[in-house]
Amino acid sequence: MRIIQHLFLSVVLAAAFFAGCETTPDIQYDREPAARLEAMRFGGVELDYATLLFDVEIDNPYPVSLPLQRLRYALVSHGHTFLTAIVVDNITVPPNTKKMLTLEDEVTYVRLLKALRSEPGLTIPFKAELTLSLDTPGPGWTDLHAEKEGIIVLPESPEITVEGKTYNAVDVIYVATPQDVVDKMLELAQVSKDDLVYDLGCGDGRIVVTAAKRFGCRAVGFDIDPRRVEESLQNVQKNNVGHLVNIEQKDIFTLDLSKADVITLFLLSRLNVKLIPQLEKLRPGSRIVSHTFGMEGVKPDQVVKMISKEDKTEHTIYLWTTPLKRKNS
């Protein structure tokens, strides 16, 4: 009986030993996990967000389940890149399985459009570059890479009603300009104490507040969104520049801009173009400075690129001086 007990204990210990070996970091498999991007598509656009869907097949050759931890991706079109990352919860690839997953990310639509220098309704070429981080046996994560190129239609954005008037939502959604880009814009426009600065679509009021504080000039911020107007007014009060800065809730396409010496913009290209008839009424020598977006058909006097210390990405600033110079003239 004692011999049988010793034999049984030896079998149990041996089984435990080999079972432990299967989960050690040194275990070797014949194949590595792989990923294939089948498709990228839009799931829809709400007021502030667009849903991006990635159909990805993951091949897990391991005898253990692999939890998906993170998705990083870049969308590239015409040399412009939108880059972001998300944490993935509760998605696991079963052992010895190829599994098709639909990974979803909600992005601020206007940020995506601005990054790709594009607009709703356009059909654009794209290259999607995905990195999926899996929690694999052994130390650390395993990164899987997948790419796909194709053509995609940028969905039209919804409409929003403000003060009884209806606008395209993308036209009124606010994205802040990094402070060092604001400083560069005002520097490029050569703002002085005697200037009157108009910021069209003023957001939180940082451009007009900065202009007043740095140069002691008068400035007016205009925004159609009452929430942004309130935020700007709070910023003006906080910085004690109420004697120099006014904030007004106005439709910028109805404004008389002729009194301004400097106009600042952070609008889509088609909105810049829509402003041309108003901008042509500025006095000679007035300056127009735009963050990110140009003005089709009008030649800029200067184009400056800079890396913002705030978001670590490249920003483009355009400067025009009136009278505007048409490209075909």
Give a quick precis of the structure:
It contains 8 helices and 19 strands.
Can you describe what's shown?
By secondary structure, the chain is α+β, with helices and mostly antiparallel strands. The protein has two domains: 34-153, Immunoglobulin-like; 174-326, Vaccinia Virus protein VP39 (Rossmann fold). 23% of the residues lie in helices and 40% in strands. The strands form five sheets. The protein has a seven-stranded mixed sheet with strand order 13-12-11-14-15-18-17, with helices on one face. Strands 3, 4, 5, 7 and 8 form a five-stranded antiparallel sheet that branches. The chain has a three-stranded antiparallel sheet with strand order 1-2-6.
Radius of gyration: 28 Å
Shape descriptor reads elongated
What low-confidence regions span 5 or more consecutive residues with pLDDT below 50?
1-27
Cα-to-Cα separation, first versus last residue:
106 Å
Mean pLDDT: 86
Largest sheet: 7 strands, mixed
Number of strand elements: 19
- Coarse structural class: alpha+beta
